[in-house]
Amino acid sequence: MDLAEELASKQRSISVAEFFEKNKHLLGFDSPTRGVITTIKEAVDNSLDACEEAEVLPDIYVAIKRVEKDVYRIIVEDNGPGIVPKQVPFVFGKLLYGSRFHQIKQSRGQQGIGISAAVLYAQLTTGVPAVVISRTGHNSPAHRFELMIKTEDNEPQILKEEEIEWDRMHGTRVEIEFKSTLAAKKRLVDYLRYTAVVNPHARVRADIDGEKFNFERASDETIVPPKAIAPHPHGIEFGTLKRMAEGSSLKLKEFLIDGFSRVGEKSADEIIGLSKLKADRKSDKLSSDDLKALLEAMQNVQIPPPPASVCLSPIGEDKIVQGLDKEFELDFVRSRTRKSQVFSGHPFIVEAAIGYGGKLDSEGSAQILRFANRVPLLYQQGACAITNAVSDVNWKSYGLSQQGLPNGPVMILVHVASTNVPFTSESKDAVAAIPEIEKEIVLVLQELGRELKTFLNRRDKSRQAEERARAVCSILPDIAEKVSEIVKKPVPDITPLEGQIMRKVVVKKRTGNGKVEIFVNNYTKNPVEFTIYNMSADSGDDAMPKPDFVDKIGDEYNKLWKVSMEPESYWEVSYKGSAQGSVSIRGVDENKLVVVDLF
Ligand SMILES: Nc1ncnc2c1ncn2[C@@H]1O[C@H](COP(=O)(O)OP(=O)(O)OP(=O)(O)O)[C@@H](O)[C@H]1O
């Protein structure tokens, strides 16, 4: 046998499932640790997409349970519209099967690989089938499936199907078991937190190996779901045009108006004129050369950009601020949503926010939160166009030090929303370096940088004024004592005076033995609202007396108390245990509130 014949005997087609089984890193399954995050991300993305389409407020439950030493069961459950039973095996048991690939609109999922890749990974590492429960409404029973993927032909294998009782009216629950570790727990919690920030309408509850997390929704408004649009003539490629033309029996002019976004009578006439084709030619009769001429003409006619307001769903400035404030309690936060732009015929919108202070780490470089179509990007920060654009901004001119990325207690959030986010790979970790996108990111960050600079300048000025006022206040008690000695009168209460000198509401805190005393002066006639966090880190909730004016707003990890005190009122807090927990008071409006006697 000669070599060609020998090789010929070895040629055979490769199923897509076999390919991805071998190349799982391409889909974000490069290690068991990462596998957990990718699986949860894919399932949660699907849940959010499904709820958005059904216009329901997402209520998502995520759990990771240890089954054996290194085997974990991952559960994601949603209250979405559910999946009709005959589709379930394909959604979870066939790669490249999905509802979004052919639609031009913003969505988290794009490729139809995500969740089936997780099923594939599970069967590869443990051989345990995926369990899916889904219900489409109160009139339909819930169906439970046990599924695997036949890798040799990329078809689903149903091991069991049954109708079951399920307390959810509608929704989907997927359970996948695989070999892994919880080494990336922090990253996972971050992923859930960031998901909550950019999906303020979602409620996400999680149980990670027994530890509970609850990310409440910051907004009760459902998102108006983006609608699919027709392709834009500037974003079309030859193959797609050919397929569209072959599948249409319309005449050329109608084909253009009907099949493409933003093409009306005038643009259609212009395109046809430039292409030198006849307007009444049947589109399925066009030759390859005709189509090439048509494509060329399409690119050279000015056509309005695609209707971004229909097919994109930016988060919005207020919602971003709400989300960030809820999770990070920043001293300064501003956000901007830019107008839509286009790259290669695909509409996109860039939104960004800058946060400063609060709970952010003051050491090291800024925290960069990258998002694409409302999905947090967790890996490959260095390879992402968002990171490059952040480094391209001259942060020094906005009052921050910089080594590539800016330094200090700064958080930079960037969200790229598009009908076609250009990722660097199928694992959807990083946005590719598209000049139009990078430019928009730089512009929005420069806008926000200017606002940050104004805040930092004002803060520095008010700090100086405050220091002077504090110096005056510190000698006031002595002066009051001396003067009263001289005039032989009782020592007056100088706190109103302090308030006037500081021109602020003064909340005083003193510590005694195991005690914290909070005092609000009378500079204002209104109650003073502020938050206290981390109260008594080691002495538990019981250590806090809870008068009427105190409300607990944090969870057990984030001890946060909302306090509203009348002017000239005291509040003495005693600890049961040792008073080692740090207490700090953060003003709701830091320009109106000053804290004295910090410890
Ligand atoms: N929880 C769910 N509720 C309703 N439909 C779902 C759910 N999960 C998946 N689907 C449907 O299954 C399809 C396939 O999901 P899959 O995760 O494989 O791909 P995708 O989300 O479309 O794209 P990507 O590969 O980019 O994640 C989705 O397009 C959606 O129609």
How would you describe this structure to a colleague?
- This protein is of the alpha+beta class and 599 residues long.
- It folds into four domains: 16-215, Heat Shock Protein 90; 233-300, Orthogonal Bundle (Helicase, Ruva Protein, domain 3); 317-455, Ribosomal Protein S5, domain 2 (2-Layer Sandwich); 495-596, Immunoglobulin-like (Sandwich).
- It has helices spanning 3-10, 16-22, 32-54, 88-93, 114-125, 185-198, 238-246, 252-259, 265-275, 288-300, 308-311, 317-328, 385-392, 435-487, 495-502, and strands spanning 59-68, 71-78, 130-135, 142-150, 155-164, 171-179, 203-208, 211-215, 332-337, 341-343, 346-356, 367-372, 375-377, 402-403, 405-406, 410-418, 505-512, 515-520, 528-533, 550-552, 560-565, 570-574, 584-587, 593-596.
- An eight-stranded mixed β-sheet has the order 5-4-3-6-2-1-7-8.
- Strand 1 and strand 2 form a beta hairpin.
- It binds adenosine-5'-triphosphate (ATP).
